[in-house]
Amino acid sequence: MIGHRWLGRRLTETWLTPIRHRRFRTDEVARLTGRNSIFLQPSSTTCNTVPVLLGTMKLMETKQRSVGYFRVIEHASRRPTETHTGLVEAVFDTGVQYGCTVEEAIRLVNKKDLETLNEMVANRFSEFRKDYDFVVVEGYNITNFSEELNNEINMNCANAIGASVVLVSDGRDNSSIAKSDDWRTKLRLLSERLLVLRQQNPDILGVILNRYPNAAPDFDLEKANVEKATKVPILGSIPLDGYLRSIMFRDILEGLGANLVFGEGKAMDVPLLLEDLRIVSERIDTMIDRVENNPLVAIGRSRAELKKLITEQISKEPDHRLPNDRVAEVVRLLHPTFSEDMIIAMVDQIDADRDGFVIESDLEGTPPKFLLITAKDRVDIVLTITSLSATRKYGGVLGGVILSGKSSSEITERTLEAISDTPALKALVKVPILETDLEPLELVDRLEQLPTKVTANSGKVERSIKLFNENVNTGKLLSGVQNPLEHISVKMFLHQVSSLARQKEAHIVVPEVNDDRILLAADEVRRRQLARLTLLGDVDAINLRIASLGLQSRDVEIVDPHKSHKFDEYAEIFDKSLYRQTTPKEIAGEALLDPYWYGAMMVKNGDADGFVGGINRPTRGTILSSRKLMLKPGRDLTSVFFMCLDKEVLIYADCALNANPDSTLLSEIAVRASDVAEQVGLRPRVAMLSYATGDSNKGPEIEKVTAAAKLARKKRPKVPIFGPTQYDAAVNPSVARTKVKGENYGVAGRANVLIFPDLNTGNNTYKAVQQSTKATAIGPLVLGMDHLVADLPRGATIQDVVNTIAITSALADK
């Protein structure tokens, strides 16, 4: 059933259907960009995240209408039952998706092309999350990649999709990264890892520990030390659990590539205890020599917890030995032709060699059925197992047998053949038996490396969820992932802008083509399908230059205003666009030969959706034509910059156009900037800046900002707006706690939209931040006209041009 569902409707639609671009509705923005996702990051390549994954999925299923599962990287070539995507789909009957395959990731990393890897994952995620109210994302650590590289890949992806990160640390992790079996050492290593990860992604919600000794006397103290050192909360610790640590015999058979001697049906799916269990078979060299060609039965003794579990079912004797009369009964059962004297001799010999094999365990609690490992030439143990497994006492604790070693035994082979050929004897074998050439000690090491799988139809699913609910602070976890997004990472912002641009498919006109930066950027825009582009200029000259740069002009329209079939039409209506002022047609015709005027006319006439220019003109010259053609009487222009800082994106306004706005215009600047913030998926928190915070000072400029803040709150009553405030109190929580007194509408220390009181302050501030921090400033984006116009800085890079075209396309009113 799982396999059929894996190839069924949901997977076909989600994984195999090509990405379709569709129009973007403004009311969808919050759903597409809000922090309605969580990123579970495994601490190493062998970290067990399954209980956390299942628990988180179940938790969110109870809080959201629809929950999807997305894995950053997945083994697409594996069977669904062997992957987390297959497990989640089978258990929760929901949609699943992955960002890329392991093979694709390795290929891109080898090419040192992490950017393409990140974009591939982000694109898949963006398309997938549209259909769900919440998405649980899980990272993936590729074997043989360094810890640093795996961290970089996963944290980049978490940043790109804007998900809060929960690190999962495994106390039984046996990877080389873990370095030690001691849980205290693992916690200290966890502290070091968290300090590194916080530099790559400051949005780490917390840590969930899995398979740690919660009952250890100093465990709580060591946990507190981690929290104190890293400032990252530990959300819970799921204890080591015997049932979850078990493995199915079928998985052992497949994992070892061994040969199955006996075994079928339910016996193959009985959980077997492996971790912390050492099962060693030692030879009794003299036994077979003393009893010629006769099978022997040797019963070993058990120790620690397992000794108590097994031997109490066998005997109440102090030394936990199986009484000799029971040994004799076993021999009689299998070999009724043996004489009593022979049986007595065999039992006496066995009694002299009681330490024939030993089972050791330091497991706390009651384990599932245990597994025996014995050498192939120990026919005595094989016979004991085949008989005792049929009894109620022994069959209840014994789950399987592995015959190990390269040396074979003819007597063992003949005995197993005799059992197989005799229906009555074969019916006695209630446990599966397999054989392998691995020596016992090597076999134990291999067994410990096998993954303890959780399958959809096993009790481990319910057990995992139960342990998660009992040991994880789910309230704290929920509070960190369901809040609206107030701050957005640069990668997420740029990805979201690109995603919205592809959905919008806006038509953007670019009037300057005599600069290679424009042509190179246009080629990237074309390849990434960020917009439909029209370049204005001499068609032959532009095509020649595109070819010389090794680019393609496919899917990019090139229009020469001199030869355009729209030229006369634009000239006829040109004068009507200038506020009904009479303009001679010949002047209009001359103006339209300027690509800036022609491009603005395209937008004005509805032949394009947005305008991007200015790479070789000052701002005033860039927006002159657009302002004349598209600004309605009585309206003012305002502008916003998107400041892409190291770890977040802020919106600055107005830093380009209005020299000294009054309180009314300043309030409009704030309102438009907050509207833009919502369009790109931010919950705006608007700070109206001044040289004083609150009522700490007085003066005309402070009064202007105070009045503007009141007006803005009336226009947008649901948007948190606070002013006057100084910059540091607006963005720094610790400063805000000191400076801000009284009502601040939840803005102080948390602002993401900053409104400057005048052009002198705003323009110099954005340039100072840009130059001092190497931040990227996208803009200005000019607001207030019928259509969007974006101004490129003259020092713009190719990527700046791409980003500006993308955001103009994303926000264009189409």
Strand residue percentage: 15-25%
Oligomeric category: single chain
Terminal CA distance:
46 Å
Chain-averaged pLDDT: 75
Strand order, main sheet: write it out. 19-18-17-20-27-26-21-22-25-23-24
- In total, how many beta strands? 27
User: Quick one: overall form?
Assistant: elongated
Observed structural traits:
alpha/beta; 11-stranded mixed sheet; disordered N terminus; 7-stranded parallel sheet; 814 residues; 35 helices
Give a description of the structure.
This protein is of the alpha/beta class and 814 residues long. Helix content is 45%, strand content 17%. The protein is built from 35 helices and 27 strands. The strands form five sheets. It has an eleven-stranded mixed sheet with strand order 19-18-17-20-27-26-21-22-25-23-24, sandwiched between helices. It has a seven-stranded parallel sheet with strand order 3-2-4-1-5-6-7, sandwiched between helices. Helix 4 crosses helix 21, helix 8 crosses helix 23 (490-504) and helix 30 crosses helix 31 (700-715). It is elongated and about 105 Å long. Mean pLDDT is 75; it is low at 1-34, 175-180, 275-324, 329-338, 349-367 and 579-584.
Question: How is the topology of this model organized?
Answer:
Blueprint: H1 2-6, H2 9-16, H3 29-33, E1 37-42, H4 50-61, E2 67-74, H5 84-92, E3 96-101, H6 102-110, H7 114-128, E4 134-138, H8 147-161, E5 164-170, H9 183-200, E6 204-212, H10 219-230, E7 234-239, E8 246-248, H11 249-256, E9 259-262, E10 271-273, E11 277-281, H12 285-290, E12 301-302, H13 304-314, H14 324-334, H15 340-352, E13 357-361, E14 370-375, H16 379-388, H17 392-395, E15 398-404, H18 410-421, H19 423-426, E16 433-435, H20 440-449, H21 460-471, H22 474-481, H23 490-504, E17 507-510, H24 516-528, E18 532-536, H25 539-548, E19 556-559, H26 567-577, H27 585-592, H28 595-604, E20 610-613, H29 619-630, E21 638-644, E22 649-653, H30 663-679, E23 686-689, H31 700-715, E24 721-725, H32 727-731, H33 733-739, E25 753-755, H34 759-773, E26 776-783, E27 788-791, H35 798-811
Parallel strand pairs: 1-4, 1-5, 2-3, 2-4, 5-6, 6-7, 12-13, 14-15, 15-16, 17-18, 17-20, 18-19, 20-27, 22-25, 23-24, 23-25
Antiparallel strand pairs: 8-10, 9-16, 11-13, 21-22, 21-26, 26-27
Helix pairs in contact: 4-21, 7-8, 8-23, 9-10, 14-15, 14-16, 23-35, 24-35, 26-27, 28-29, 30-31
